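Onboarding guide, step 5: your first structure request.
Type a short instruction followed by the sequence, for example:

Predict the 3D structure of this protein.
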Amino acid sequence: MPGMPELSSIIENDMRLVVKKILVAEWIIMVAMFVLVIIGVIIGFTNPVYFEEAYTREDGLVENLTAIALFAAAVIVIVKLWRARGESTLRTACHVIFALMLIFGAGEEISWGQRIFGWESGEFFLEHNDQKETNLHNLIVNDTKINKFVFGQILTGFLAIYFLVLPFAFRGMKRVRAVVNRMGIPVPRVYQSLLFAVAYSMTLIIPAGRKWELGEMALAAVIVVVVINSYNNMGIAPGRKRHQAR
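The system replies with structure tokens like these:
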């Protein structure tokens, strides 16, 4: 039909601009994350007191950035879900669950705004929460910290599978690829996984306490870039036909 080549060219150019903007946003986030991690490592070695009481303190820069990043990732997932409405019930359900998990993580990070709005913890949290705050990850159950078990051991295992196993299983196993795409799970690109592994490893060498706050910030930043620019293009063109990235 007359005009179709021109229309096709316009769409192609628009998509190139979208992809370019996505890549720029991704690298801005990653560079900012590494700058904060490197600064944290330097402060952690040279001034541990400042690292704990200022740089990674409760409601400080690092913790707030973590919450903002998780919330931003949730918004991106919700927008993707809205644009891709009409897809399978399974994929929709997975996107809703993923968004809720991200919102939960953001809320837990700032104790659901307790210190921002200044409300007091209830009796249950005063008795069972290690920091007397309104959150679940600092609860103590039968002398066991939920933070160390669920958000430590279990989460570490999950992240290892997600960042280190899934990218390769997705490429090499057709059944895994089919299931992951059917569920709409964003697959990390290899360089995203490697950058996260490097950044997280850097936080582990910090001798000061509260270094996990820096690791959580790095994780939140990488989650944002994975949602934006995943290997299987789940975050690039919601609502359009998806093609596997080369």
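Each response can be followed by summary notes, for example: The first helix runs from residue 4 to 46.
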